[in-house]
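Before our next group meeting I need something from you. Please put the record directly below this note.
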Amino acid sequence: MTTIKDIFRDFGPEYIQRFGDHMPADHYKIIDAIINCRSGHYGASIYQCTQCGKNHVVYRCCGNRHCPNCQHHKSRQWLQTQLDRQLPGHHFMITFTVPEKLRRFIRSHQRLGYAAMFAASSQTIKKLATDPKYIGADMPGFFGVLHTWGRQMPYHPHIHYIVPGGALSKTDGKWYCSRIDFYLPVKAMSKIFRAKFRDFIKASGLYAQVDSDVWNQNWIVNCQAVGAGQHSLKYLAPYVFKVAISNSRIVKVQDRSVFFKYRKPKSNRWRIMSLDVIEFMRRFLQHVLPTGFMKVRYYGFLHPGCSVPLEKVAALIELAF
């Protein structure tokens, strides 16, 4: 089976030779990490069988968060942690997406663009949650996960939030429930998200670099009821530590083309797509996040630093039902 490591080992030097003068330093690091992962470059561990006494050598992985070999166990650990913190009651998944014409700007200013997306979207949820027409409480709790890819590896930055259905009031200490099938209006979220993102970019001094048409477009926000929340957590868990494409989706490399599987939305049928190997690597690398950037963020009473214990929030939710 052909792997991403095989592709970067065989064609990575050519890619660097062609684009090295313009490549971010992070891209050099991930190419090197993928090529050397579990090769002995990072050392090895020796385990001895207690029954037969035979030694087994296991080469250490690179640990890079963009390496497809290193993330599965982290995904399982994260999921278990979130399930242990799962609150009772209904939940929602809210997704914030930016217009296509804005993607080039964000890709060129990733640290700024992703930070603006998190700030604008989280502030949107907090602002509307205080409105008594919807919830009427000032401390919602939620966490968001940044994704940057689609199924064919295009650049498509968006944030998924998991939100318990209600909010805590700092004024009276009570839990205010949302409707089971409705959390916040998507049209209002879209307008506020756009305005707050625009203000963030203006403050950065880069407003003139953004195509002015994006401020006249409708920004897509989706809000979906997901029941108890376990299903949405299990959906998100693989993506928290997942890279743009897994080894299992790669079919073959033939005549400098990479053939890989993908599914269209709302379809279970696998389709095959081919890309020139250099274009495949370019698409993969455009999803490498800036060093140290946190792609999972927690807000309100779900933030680790919140003064209100989750056990108390859970008890208040139980009382509200």
Q: What stands out?
A: The mean pLDDT is 90. The chain has nine helices and twelve strands. The radius of gyration is 22 Å.
